[in-house]
Amino acid sequence: MSATVPDVPRHSPGDPLPPADPVLTLTGERTIPDLDVENYWFRRHQVVYQRLAGHCAGREVLEAGCGEGYGADLIAGVARRVVAVDYDEAAVAHVRTRYPRVEVMRANLAELPLPDASVDIVVNFQVIEHLWDQAQFVAECARVLRRGGQLMVSTPNRITFSPGRDTPINPFHTRELNAAELAELLVDAGFRDVSVSGLFHGPRLRKMDARHGGSIIDAQIERALADAPWPAELAADVAAVTCDDFEMVQSGCRDIDDSLDLIAIAVAP
After folding, report:
1. Which of 66, 139, 208, 225 matches a 20 to 30 Å C-alpha distance to 41?
2. Does 36-199+249-268 carry CATH code 3.40.50.150?
3. Which CDD domains match (predicted)?
């Protein structure tokens, strides 16, 4: 018999109002919605939630590493129940007040606070690269998933995100992966039917790349590192990016090693 996720307290009508929403500052560790300067990265993350939310329809879902919470809330629009876990106290407090339909708790992802076989889906988007013990985390995902449940992971493609480097460019990342390494990590934990897709710029973003010296990503990073003002055209293009400007392509249809981000879906043993 499958276990049940323990209830997490939620705000109900008639309860005292929660404290004011804790404000999360932009540090580079997580993306935040509603900021023009962050819009490219936010949309690049949001699109994966949008494209894969259908897998969560009517299911019990754990988001392991929920960050600001926008993704967990998006999934809550179709899922039967969403439990979100994050280690950062400020993020947990923010999610609790801003997204009341998400049940959130603070915990270490290496020791998920859920019973065995208690959820149908585990979502882990743009988080695994932050973890020190990735194998332990994936083993925990296998433990809490019901038989035949799905683990969905997205992560920056090491080949294109930190090209030619042994250590990640982003100081908040501990270990980045390529497609083969991501698949191997999941298979070694006993997951089956592992599929890996890649996220790419679509036609409109490729035109923006051309307008900004070949890469709108590099143009943003250059200004951030130099703490320099953004040209008006760059600021306008970044603010205009939408989820429709990205393409998610299955392995075999295009060289996944050229992708920006990797998206893996695997079935629990």
Report:
1. 139
2. yes
3. AdoMet_MTases (cd02440)
| DSSP-assigned beta bridge partners for residue 263 | 154, 197
List the structure tokens of 3: 């276990």
At 45, list the tokens: 């993350």
Neighbours of 88 (CB within 10 A): 16
Q: Which two tokens stand for residue 63?
A: 């988001």
Pairing mode, strands 60-64 and 81-86: parallel
Tokens of 131: 């973890």
Kindly report the backbone phi and psi dihedral angles of residue 109, in degrees, each rounded to the nearest multiple of 5, phi listed first. Answer: -70, -15
Residue 153 CA to residue 143 CA, distance in Å, equals: 16
Stretch among 26-40, 214-228, 234-248 having the lowest mean pLDDT:
26-40
- Helices 134-144 and 179-188: crossing angle in degrees, nearest 10, is 50
**φ and ψ at residue 200, rounded to 5 degrees:** -130, 160
Q: How far apart are CA 240 and CA 94, in angstroms?
A: 26
What are the tens digits of pLDDT across the range 176-216? 899 999 999 999 999 999 999 999 999 999 999 999 999 99
Q: End-to-end distance of the chain based on CA atoms, in angstroms?
A: 16
Domain boundaries, the chain: 36-199+249-268
What is the C-alpha to C-alpha distance for residues 208 and 217, in angstroms, rounded to an integer?
A: 10
- Which residue stretches of the chain are H helix? 39-52, 70-76, 89-98, 134-144, 158-161, 179-188, 203-211, 216-226, 232-240
